[in-house]
Amino acid sequence: MSKTPVRVGLIVPSSNVTVETEMPRILARAPGTEFTFHSSRMRMKAVSPEQIRAMNAQRERCVMELGDAGVDVMLYACLVAIMSTGLGAHRDAEMGVAEQLSLGGSEAKVLSSAGALISGLQALGARRIALVTPYMRPLAQQVVDYIEAEGFEVADWRALEVADNAEVGRIPGERVMAAARSLDLAGVDVLVISACVQMPSLDLVQTAEDEFGIPVISAATAGAYSILRTIGASVDIPGAGSLLLADASVVAS
């Protein structure tokens, strides 16, 4: 008798087409667990402070819609939407969503791409990191500041400065890898190849890890890791970076 699939709710920007592609691809490879995916969208076309604020104001509607779908775990899948609103904001955002769901009778676990990236770095024992982002430099700097406030040193970083979110979803892998190759990785523990769930990265993670010889993660692989750990499923997905290898990571306290 087959198990009931785990229902994953995704809150995504309206122009995001990547997380609904990469997350199912990753989790389909997880042993012993089946997933279904259910999305609700917040209107956002340009990755700008103004449109991010307007998008975040739509969160409650999305939470109610996914609560109606009876999801088991919910991921707020826009990293910069949280990291640009204040240091440590992923904790308040996750708590706020959980409280809203609880009022509606849902016990769904709540995660965010922002919190998942931090958890993934902690799980790998990272201290000194480097990252590639698609954002304009002021927003990218806010992401760097946010991560450093969580206790990590960002040794080097690149901003590809793509403001149109639909265009972010079309950034070629070659451009992302070129940015990664331009980083100073001396003494770096972990490379974040994509600090954005819209910038395609899944096909780059293992390639980059093999090339650079250090653990490589993305917002997408960190999100998948957090989902698996949250629902108590096995973490054993070869070919997607060290974070998703069985027994390769130890969750920090």
Topology:
Blueprint: E1 6-13, H1 19-27, E2 35-42, H2 49-56, H3 59-68, E3 73-76, H4 79-83, H5 89-103, E4 109-112, H6 113-123, E5 128-133, H7 137-149, E6 153-159, H8 165-168, H9 173-181, E7 190-194, H10 202-212, E8 216-218, H11 219-230
Parallel strand pairs: 1-2, 1-3, 3-4, 5-6, 5-7, 7-8
Helix pairs in contact: 1-11, 6-11
Folded structure, characterized:
By secondary structure, this protein is an alpha/beta fold. The protein folds into two domains: 121 residues, Rossmann fold (3-Layer(aba) Sandwich), CATH 3.40.50.12500; 105 residues, Rossmann fold. 42% of the residues lie in helices and 18% in strands. It contains eleven helices and eight strands. Strands 2-1-3-4 form a four-stranded parallel sheet. The longest helix is centred in the middle third of the chain and has 15 residues. The radius of gyration is 17 Å and the shape is globular. The C terminus is likely disordered.
CATH topology type of the largest domain: Rossmann fold
Low-confidence stretches: 249-253
Structural class: alpha/beta
Let me know the number of strands. 8
What is the CATH architecture term of the largest domain?
3-Layer(aba) Sandwich
How many structural domains can be distinguished in the coordinates? 2
Query: What would CATH call the class of the largest domain?
Result: Alpha Beta
Helical amount among residues, as a percent range?
40-55%
Percent of sequence in beta strands: 15-25%
Question: What would the principal axes of the Cα set say about the shape?
Answer: globular
Number of helices: 11
- Rg (C-alpha, Å): 17 Å
Q: How would you characterize the largest beta sheet?
A: 4 strands, parallel
Strand adjacency order, main sheet: 2-1-3-4
Q: N-to-C SSE series?
A: EHEHHEHHEHEHEHHEHEH
The residue-averaged pLDDT reads 91
State the end-to-end distance. Answer: 37 Å
